[in-house]
Please model this.
Amino acid sequence: MAKLTGDTESGVLTLRVARYNPEQDEAARPQEWKVKILPGMTVLDALFAIKEEQDGSLAFRCSCRMGVCGSCGMFINGKPRLACNTQVSELGSVVEVAPLPNHDAIKDLVPDLSLTFSRHRAVLPYLMRRDTAEMESPTREYHQTPEELARYVQFTYCLKCSLCLAACPTAATKEQFLGPQALGQVYRYVADSRDEGLAERAGVVDASHGVFGCHLAGACSEACPKGVDPALAIQLLKRSLFSGPPHRSAAQVVPAFPEGHQTPEAAVRPKAPPPSV
Ligand code: SF4
Ligand code: FES
Model:
């Protein structure tokens, strides 16, 4: 790989961006701009500087600009990352930016996430209960202990940014593979003591393109900006398919806080994954 060179000492960053316009390009082509480095500048800030001052036609996607919405995923210096959560000071003086691998590009840095979302929908990502009357017209709440919450809460932090899918070597070679985002979310629901949908979801994921398609490369967990660890979720999901969900029975409706849970503040609550921003 060519050595990257640049001009950080003079406070100038070179951005080499993969441009692609489906109306005129057969393939992506590189284009370079120079941007003045500002304190705290992120890759997203640098892209905005180009768009606002040099080339308004540059296309990229973002919304929250604070690592929450998951819409600014890009391939930055060879790794899938959130552009708003990546400081240019960590990257050297030349930064290469391309759209997420394993996704079609709509234009420039905008990936087509429709497959990610359709796979997510395919794994039935919602609580499923047999007591549908209670689900539709709840009388009280389902009882869940802090320990039961701790089994799945980490997996609820998924942004659907698709960085894990972009990093996955199996997804790169097997188009049908459901991928780490969708499979991780299957376990998020299977491990939730309020859920009774394992059998229905097994019909979707117990297949060669499903959970057993994972070769445990672990690249998904390394790429995840929220500490979700989809590789762990996939392994736990495999176990659940053989031995059932981690809870013995589904959470029941309780008439009031049970004895010993009168003061929720006193409960030991699971901790969120380490902050990424
Ligand atoms: S598991 Fe992590 S990397 Fe994958 S979509 Fe969710 S937040 Fe993004
Ligand atoms: S713009 Fe929302 S995560 Fe980057």
